[in-house]
């Protein structure tokens, strides 16, 4: 009896969530998870952590080097760089998350519809997607942001438009494969509507692929936001953003290096953490990788 229980427990562990088991084996992935968690917590608790008001100007401490009073120095208006960096994390992470969420919903819906319906509709939709993919992400985001204007909401829309096409391409391919499987055919024979088949039977089977792409493209969204802010099409000053801080500090890069270095490091660490997490999720979800592990 005890032997049977032990065997059952062992088999249940092996049949537990394969993604969690794969992440547990990949210790390097926990570096990305821990780093990203620290950045997110710093952004959430910025009002409690920030030593100064990020918008308060003090000309007496203009361009002060890193010291015990100002750990990361001050900018050309005497504002504390550390405080602006913490509050800027809120803007950058919010834009990255919301833009990717919108792109994931819109792009995945388009890809599933194109893959399920097929035929001429699929050819037209994928033709439009291919045209969008032919543009560099930054260039397409620059054009959309220039047309909509520089604001928090418009920046989210601009980045979401640039990233919807990859989600459509990723969602379409597995949809074509899944819709030919027996359980989908059984659903059709039972009279299930196409909307129910796509939402209940197809979407759960391709969701893992979409989530992996979302984690990777969120890093791209943060880079795009920083690039647009650097050229003046991001959230407008005095609201602190990492790209805006780099732009403001670029004029004094030779005399006040900290104005550019610390925001750049923040972007680097965030993108690195998201890429590590995305690669770990991809390896965990890929059945070929799991079988080798």
Automatic annotation (TrEMBL):
InterPro entries: BP-dependent_transpt_permease, MetI-like, MetI-like_sf, OppC_N
One family name in Pfam for this protein: OppC_N
The protein, known as: ABC transporter permease
Its membrane topology: Multi-pass membrane protein
Family: Belongs to the binding-protein-dependent transport system permease family.
Keywords: Cell membrane, Membrane, Peptide transport, Protein transport, Transmembrane, Transmembrane helix, Transport
Annotated localization: Cell membrane
Positions of the ABC transmembrane type-1 domain: 89-278
Transmembrane segments: 28-52, 93-118, 124-148, 206-235, 255-278
